[in-house]
């Protein structure tokens, strides 16, 4: 089932810049979303907020 979405011509042009010859908008957007999801997961896995270094952990264990 296809859905029509309204986008500005400037957004359409930006989407086109990411495409290759013969690639549909659906394919371009799907590829971009997949890439964004991978980046989001990578950012989540690599987030060091609340983490301590191994040396800090060892120092805590010695206490």
Task: Provide key terms for this protein.
63 residues, 65% helix, rod-shaped, mainly alpha, 3 helices
Write the layout of secondary structure elements.
Elements: H1 9-18, H2 25-46, H3 54-62
Task: Write a brief caption for the model.
The chain has 63 residues and is mainly alpha-helical. Helices cover 65% and strands 0% of the residues.
Structure, explained:
- The protein is mostly helical and 63 residues long.
- The protein has one domain.
- Helices cover 65% and strands 0% of the residues.
- The protein is built from 3 helices and no strands.
- The radius of gyration is 21 Å and the shape is rod-shaped.
- The N and C termini lie far apart (63 Å).
The number of domains is 1
Largest sheet: none
Report the mean per-residue pLDDT as an integer: 94
Uncertain spans: none
Distance, first to last CA: 63 Å
Give the percentage of residues in beta strands: under 5%
Report the C-alpha radius of gyration, rounded: 21 Å
Structural class: mainly alpha
Query: Could you state the order of secondary-structure elements as H and E?
Result: HHH
The number of E-state strands comes to 0
The helix tally amounts to: 3
Portion in helices: 55-70%
Subunit arrangement of the protein: single chain
Label the overall shape: rod-shaped
């Amino acid at each position: 089932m296809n859905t029509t979405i309204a986008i500005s011509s400037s957004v359409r042009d930006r989407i086109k810049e990411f495409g290759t010859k013969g690639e549909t908008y659906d394919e371009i957007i799907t590829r971009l979303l997949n890439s964004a999801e991978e980046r989001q997961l990578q950012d989540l896995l690599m987030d060091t907020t609340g983490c301590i270094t191994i040396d800090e952990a060892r120092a805590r264990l010695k206490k």
